[in-house]
Amino acid sequence: MTKKPHIKLIHIGEYMAEVEVELIETPEGWSPYLSLEDAQKLDGVREALRQGDLQKASNLAHLYKITPLTV
């Protein structure tokens, strides 16, 4: 079993979060996968962004405000 750092991006409304997780790779069939803690971290960030709780989301991830461009 090996663990590799990975960045997951979550986009909700005008915000994007960069969440640091570890992908677990094993020789068995369901690889790569997340640990329970990392999956709960992703769910926590997603829920905080949906509720507009930027403080809570920023405790778990790097936040960015996305501005649409017209070309």
Task: Point out poorly predicted stretches.
Answer: none
Name the shape in a single word: elongated
> Gap between N and C termini, in Å?
47 Å
Number of domains: 1
Instruction: List how many beta strands DSSP finds.
Output: 4
Largest sheet: 4 strands, antiparallel
Approximately what portion of the residues adopt beta-strand conformation? Answer: 35-45%
Concise synopsis of the structure shown:
By secondary structure, the chain is α+β, with helices and mostly antiparallel strands.
Describe this structure in words.
The protein contains two helices and four strands, in the order βββααβ. It is an alpha+beta fold. The protein has one domain. A hairpin with a 7-residue loop joins strand 2 and strand 3. The termini are far apart.
What attributes does this structure have?
alpha+beta, 71 residues, 32% helix, 2 helices
Q: How is the topology of this model organized?
A:
Blueprint: E1 2-12, E2 15-25, E3 33-34, H1 36-51, H2 54-60, E4 62-65
Antiparallel strand pairs: 1-2, 2-3, 2-4
Helix pairs in contact: 1-2
